[in-house]
Write a structure and sequence with these properties.
The chain has 142 residues and is α+β, with helices and mostly antiparallel strands. It contains two helices and seven strands, in the order E-H-E-E-H-E-E-E-E. It has a single domain, classed as Hotdog Thioesterase (Thiol Ester Dehydrase, Chain A). It has a seven-stranded antiparallel beta sheet with strand order 1-2-3-5-6-7-4. The longest helix is centred in the middle third of the chain and has 16 residues. The chain is globular and about 40 Å long. The N and C termini lie far apart (32 Å).
């Protein structure tokens, strides 16, 4: 583990149970790999009626993207506020994330960096089985 939950919470605007990522396994200028077990937590704030719907995987991916942006910006860079602008090629292969027994790997790869707009490919998987994938466009504040 390169980065733990405490450092993750210091780099993204989410804290407590809403910080869904547990650790960073690796990252470089364009790629990040995180891990989590929060999808199994009964107090996960995204659960509805006792279940964690697969679409909530988008929030896991968005947090990995935000974390990557903060890490790639360097220690002295102030994290930029970003807004999810669009999703493309979204594929959910299970109806519920809480049905995944193992830890989730949350991977994001930056495809485009145009300063005020970034595009990432992302995937959530467990035990080498893909659970969700897609692309996300994020608009960044100046």
């Amino acid at each position: 583990m390169l980065i733990d939950k405490v450092e993750i919470q210091a780099r993204i605007p989410h804290s407590g149970a809403m910080c869904l990522l547990d650790s960073v396994l690796s990252w470089d200028d364009v790629h990040i790999v995180c891990t989590t077990h929060s999808h199994r937590a009964p107090d996960n704030p995204l659960r509805r009626d006792g279940r964690l719907h697969a679409i909530c995987g988008v929030e896991y991916a968005a947090q990995a993207i935000a974390l990557h942006g903060g890490l790639a910006g360097g220690a002295s860079a102030r994290p930029r506020v970003g807004y999810l602008a669009s999703l493309r090629d979204l594929a959910c292969r299970l109806p519920y994330l809480d049905a995944v027994e193992g830890d989730l790997l949350v991977e994001a790869e930056q495809l485009v960096d145009e300063g005020s707009r970034v595009i990432y490919r992302f995937a959530l998987s467990s035990k080498a089985v893909e659970v969700m994938s897609g692309r996300a466009a994020v608009v960044l504040e100046a």
